[in-house]
């Protein structure tokens, strides 16, 4: 098989050649955009799931849908050590520039508000630092610059959404790794979304994060359970996984045999990133079309080695020795399952008091290697991570 024509794309956030199994989410978002454009009541959206299930890819696909309708869009990625103000200001700056046919004078005013909002972020040294986001208009004083992020975000969203409404379109903010926002920023974002929803202004937030994100939002604002439309993004079913392999192959006049498709699903578990990784390797090792189960068997070790370095290993290397010990104990307790395990069982496996393991567990939570969606239980954020750890110890 010609490697130059290999259609598969195993990359972080890289759209696969066939976005299989996500038609429901794409259709639902089209409905949201249309309802918001007509001033109908609608909720912002939160996508949750493990690493490698395609949340970022879907986020980008939803953004493209908004752009096609003439909406202004901006995207940012939350980081644990970074306040929301400046990344959000930069994202909204782009959204206003993308917005179809806004009034120039009103747009300049809103850009000034965005600039004022971004410049209000305090620093440890000066308390207030000048910021140059590339917005070539004066900052608008007295709007979205009180220093209280909740007040400022409500004012900012109101002004940006008002501009979009006057232009006959809307604004969509796409926020990846949403669980990494600090507590104050989560609270402010919920409050701003609540206010926008009550006023039926044309602005939606589409967030994506790990499975415990709903618990993070609920802990901040009790009404967040009713504020967002939650969508769990999971692994592909067999039909969708087959389509993710077959459709790109057909575009290159190639195919997978039925036995090869079955072997691929067994190897990948239907996780989109793994489907792309195994598909790429199977294509490269197969001598000709159709790709057979024997080709998949030859490709599997090579694909697993690549995943061990780039997907699993890069994350494992971030852990300290104590954290790695905790991860391996989780893998032993979970066995062949990717399900959450009791923290008490992990402590028992290590023959240590549960309290002594709290620092390692908390550090793993902060690094995004594990998550806890309910008290007393913990799980890997990466599918098949336990299997990887057990193979390392074998």
Q: What's the CATH superfamily of the largest domain, by name? A: P-loop containing nucleotide triphosphate hydrolases
Which class of the largest domain in CATH terms? Alpha Beta
In the CATH hierarchy, the third-tier topology of the largest domain is known as: Rossmann fold
Task: Write down the overall mean pLDDT.
Answer: 93
Give the termini distance in whole angstroms. 34 Å
Strand content: 5-15%
Main sheet: strand order: 2-3-4-1-5
Secondary structure tally: strands: 8
The general outline is globular
The ordered H/E elements are HEHEHHHEHEHHEHHHHHEHHEEH
Largest sheet: 5 strands, parallel
Primary descriptors:
Arc Repressor Mutant, subunit A; 394 residues; 53% helix; alpha/beta
SSE blueprint and pairings:
Layout: H1 23-37, E1 44-48, H2 55-68, E2 72-77, H3 85-98, H4 104-119, H5 149-166, E3 171-176, H6 183-199, E4 203-209, H7 213-220, H8 224-227, E5 228-232, H9 238-251, H10 258-268, H11 272-285, H12 293-316, H13 321-334, E6 341-342, H14 343-350, H15 358-366, E7 370-371, E8 377-380, H16 385-393
Parallel strand pairs: 1-4, 1-5, 2-3, 3-4
Antiparallel strand pairs: 6-8, 7-8
């Amino acid at each position: 098989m010609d490697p130059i024509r290999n259609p598969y794309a195993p990359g972080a956030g890289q759209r696969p050649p066939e976005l299989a199994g996500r038609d429901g989410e794409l259709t639902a978002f089209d409905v949201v955009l249309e309802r918001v454009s007509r001033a109908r009541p609608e909720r912002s959206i939160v996508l949750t799931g493990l690493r490698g299930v395609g949340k970022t890819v879907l986020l980008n696909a939803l953004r493209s849908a908004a752009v096609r309708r003439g909406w202004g869009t901006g995207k940012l990625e939350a980081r644990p050590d970074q306040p929301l103000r400046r990344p959000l200001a930069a994202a909204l700056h782009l959204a206003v520039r993308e917005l179809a046919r806004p009034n120039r004078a009103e747009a300049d005013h809103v850009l000034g508000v965005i600039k004022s909002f971004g410049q209000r972020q305090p620093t440890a040294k000066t308390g207030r630092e000048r910021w140059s986001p590339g917005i070539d208009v004066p900052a608008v004083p007295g709007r979205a610059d009180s220093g209280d992020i909740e007040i400022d975000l409500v004012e900012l969203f109101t002004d940006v959404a008002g501009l979009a409404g006057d232009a006959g379109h809307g604004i969509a903010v796409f926020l990846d790794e949403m669980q990494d926002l600090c507590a104050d920023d989560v609270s402010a974002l919920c409050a701003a979304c609540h206010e926008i929803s009550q006023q039926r202004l044309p602005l939606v937030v589409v967030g994506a994060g790990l499975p415990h994100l709903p618990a993070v939002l609920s802990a901040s604002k009790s009404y967040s359970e009713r504020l967002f439309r939650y969508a769990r993004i999971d692994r592909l079913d067999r039909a969708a996984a087959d389509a993710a392999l077959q459709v790109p192959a057909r575009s290159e006049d190639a195919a997978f045999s039925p036995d090869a498709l079955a072997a691929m699903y067994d190897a990948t578990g239907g996780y989109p990133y793994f489907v792309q990784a195994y598909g790429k390797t199977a294509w490269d090792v197969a001598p000709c079309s159709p790709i057979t189960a024997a080709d998949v068997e030859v490709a599997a070790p090579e694909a697993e080695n690549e995943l061990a370095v780039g997907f699993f290993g890069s994350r494992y290397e971030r852990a300290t020795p104590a954290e790695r010990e905790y991860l391996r104990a989780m893998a032993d307790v979970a066995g062949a399952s990717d399900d959450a395990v009791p923290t008490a069982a992990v402590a028992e496996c290590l023959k240590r008091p549960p309290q002594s393991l709290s620092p390692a567990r908390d550090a793993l939570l902060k690094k995004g290697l594990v998550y806890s969606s309910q008290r007393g239980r913990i799980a890997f954020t990466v599918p098949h991570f336990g299997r990887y750890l057990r193979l390392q110890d074998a």
